[in-house]
Amino acid sequence: MPDQLLFAMEVTLNGLMTGVLYSLVALGFVLIFKASGIFNYSQGVLALFAALTLVGFQEGQVPFAHLINAIFGTEIHHFGWHLPAILAILLTLAVMVLLAILVEKYILQHLVNQEPIILFMATIGLAYFLEGFGDIMWGADIKTLDVGLPQGISETIDETTYEWFGYGFFIDRLDIVATVIAAILVISLTLFSQYTKHGRALRAVADDHQAALSVGISLRFIWVLVWSIAGFVALVAGIMWGTKSGVQFSLSLIALKALPVLMLGGFTSIPGAIVGGLIIGVGEKLFEFLIGPMVGGATENWFAYVLALVFLVFRPQGLFGEKIIERV
Amino acid sequence: MNFKKLAAAALAATIAAGPAMAELVFPSLSYRTGPYAAGGIPFADGYEDYMTLLNERDGGIGGVKISVPECETAYNTEKGVECYESTKGLGSLVYQPLSTGITYQLIPKVSADEIPLHTMGYGRTSAANGEVFEWVFNYPANYWDGASVAITHLLDINDGDISGKKIALVFHNSAYGKEPIRTLEKLSEKHGYELTTLAVDHPGQEQKSQWLQIRRERPDYVIMWGWGVMNQVAVQEAANIRFPMENFIGNWWAGSENDVIPAGEAAHGYKALAMHGTGMDYPIYEDIQQYVVDAGLAAGAGDQVGTVLYSRGLYAAMLAAEAARTAQEIHGTAEITPAMMRDGMENLKITEERMAELGLPNFGPAFEVSCANHGGPGEAMVQQWDAEAQEWNLITDFIKSDDDVIEPLIEADSMAYAEENALDLRCQ
């Protein structure tokens, strides 16, 4: 098999894996948009905040230590214990649920029936608040996140493809784990929304707030539920990206990678987030491989948006988005 | 309280909050927030702690206390310019913005306002030519020196011959990241190596394409010009593809603890350029502990003391303080102006004896600044990461950059700037 074809296959596989990581971020946006019509600008910061909190719990870091020490002249930084990953994840989940309750109580509740743009602006405010709050709570230094996920080349794939093609493919084991987790997440979310009482309530709210309220569905509960689930998805995304690069404030910028995925897959479709992520992941990697060297490289950031725009020309609602028909 | 009383109180508070007239003002355009905070915090802490040390131990410089008003730029060029505008009226003696983007915006401003700008190891490289750039200094080394030192190191470990070797440059796709390309191209003509350049888009969280290409093309060495998250991801990706870490060399902005710790054991052996010493084995740290940390005056959380970027901030502050001292001597007054400070910078002499007196023996190179040479000696060392001991070890002495290649590049670029801006040459 010609070398270039083998390389293209390797790039495609890696693009698919990277696309899954993009999808993980995009999923959080979709969940909240579906249930409340809010484009949650703070989703990237939620991932950062979740990852910061997870490392903080794991390492036994004292929250607000810098502030406490400055006010009281103390020198406390750590509790002196290290929590097992699973316990730290559960505690972080509890924090994300608490955050969802607070967001509903202090932001969303006061903005019921407001224009979507106002809700969007509120999430911008939330993003900046959470970024600063996370900084004060856990500090701005880079933290190493280790929840036991494997990293590095998959020997099995390397050896197998070498036997088949005479060239070993590189696939990161972390990307394989991310793919499995994303698959489980999507199946679970689909089953939850199709077959559980709360899932059906969530879909009812997504379809029509007023009608859902009229049959006794609590809008407040649904919002807390959906922000909690988005918080959980943010935690998963934070773990995956944080394991790759350490937990640091640039993690919030991964939201930029989710935007073309949403444009392409549609803001209201969970499968759309997955398929959109895969198309963006493969598209940008193949473009960088084939065309990048001719134009000086670093094409991935802008090409993802160009690809999404091309799709938008033909399907403005995205591949899987709901077509909006407004009658006068 | 009526309006008049309130206005008077506000005025009094404003006056009290501002620096007193008899203070030497060294503004710190820092970034403690945002994606690059992990790099900005230790530098700002080191800068401020050194100035605090001088205030507490020596009563300031020449008997005049120092003030370090801090302004948050978040590594954002617009905010950096705002910080400059809001602090220049305080009598600021020199600006060190720790950002190439902000530097480019400030060069025309400081030239008009006549306030010195010191960009140590970053910024516009050709500002080393003092004949063109009266108010800008980038001693002791610049980007092109760094690129040359990396190549000289590769020559040293290959018995002086790297012809036919493949070298890849992984760079941040920005003005900063592109700086070494011309130098590396010129050096490739001279030494016969094959150069491949691989751009990484901001912020650098995703670099799979670049490292797959490196895996395919198997370069002998990879040089990196990165900053922030790009560095951590690159080190991790290099480990993932099993690229030999001892053949991977970052520049001095890709050589802090932040860049290697997230990759754990896999980062062992990674190399980086160093424009100054590393670690806490310098006498000055005893004074910092006694007069700053133990006195509860440490900047920030006080947890960055001794890190690479803290040391760089400290070094930057030391060079600023020494220039201020020189200015005081030249002009016979302790209360210097920005113009006097510029004179001090242009006549700065850093000797080994003076470094030892300051508690920093062999920490940085000995050098002299002159009217024509604002760039210093252009020397750097190479350090290597020991993942087990969690520390950087210097593995070379100071290596001199290749003046035969660098000087014509600086000359050409600075003269083009002079022509564009219709500047008369100085120092003639």
Report a brief summary of the structure.
The complex is a heterodimer of chains A (328) and B (428). With 328 residues, chain A is mostly helical.
Can you describe this structure?
The complex is a heterodimer of chains A (328) and B (428). Chain A has 328 residues and is an all-alpha fold. In chain A, 71% of the residues lie in helices and 0% in strands. Chain A has 14 helices and no strands. Chain A is globular, with a radius of gyration of 21 Å. Chain A starts with a helix and ends in a 14-residue tail after the last helix. Chain B is an alpha/beta fold and 428 residues long. Chain B contains 15 helices and 16 strands. Chain B has helices spanning 3-17, 37-58, 77-87, 100-113, 143-157, 175-178, 181-191, 208-217, 229-240, 257-260, 284-293, 308-331, 338-346, 352-357, 403-420, and strands spanning 23-25, 28-30, 65-67, 70-72, 117-118, 136-137, 166-172, 194-200, 221-225, 248-250, 271-274, 349-350, 367-368, 379-386, 391-394, 399-400. Chain B is globular and about 60 Å long. Residues 13-20 of chain B have low confidence and may be disordered. The chains are: A mainly alpha (328), B alpha/beta (428).
Structural class of chain B: alpha/beta
> Can you name the CATH architecture of chain A?
Orthogonal Bundle
Give the CATH level 1 class of chain A. Mainly Alpha
Number of helices of chain A: 14
Total DSSP helices of chain B: 15
* N- and C-termini, Cα separation of chain A: 59 Å
How much β-strand is present in the residues of chain B? 5-15%
If you consult CATH, what is the topology of chain A? ABC transporter involved in vitamin B12 uptake, BtuC
